[in-house]
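This follows on from our talk about sequence and fold. I would like you to pick a protein and set down its sequence and fold. Go ahead and set the record down below:
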Amino acid sequence: YHHYGIEKCTLPKKLSGVFEHTVIRKRSPLFRGFDDRFYAPHSRYTEVRLDDLLTKPELEVLALSSEAGVFGVKSSDNRQFFIFAHPEYDGDTLALEYFRDVKRGLSPAIPAHYFPGNNPSLDPIVNWRSSGQLLYTNWLNYYVYQTTPYDPSEISLESSQI
């Protein structure tokens, strides 16, 4: 909203689970090394709607999920990235959230596609760790490290020595 005036929309219930996503911008360096479809956890009460994003020509939708909606968007100048999932989550993060909410008496839905057989007594199968790691590695490599302008002659040897 702050940058593009796009409102968040409250969902009727919490979206929680691990969802399949399709890479839309297959040539994007952000998805270098990705399969055409990948998984990522979501845990949220709001969304940004695809139709609202498509009204902004300065934004590019990167990946989508038929169940969870937009995964990621970037500005066309590659300076801003907006990720609406949690690829950084540890394998037990959704479980910890779920059991916390059960303990609080909130009656949460079991996170979708997370526990084998939808059974919270079983350990979840992590199927997003490699794509999550690759996403952050690609972002740092292709959009931060390789494109951040600096002049090596301005780096002082004295200031770099500790």
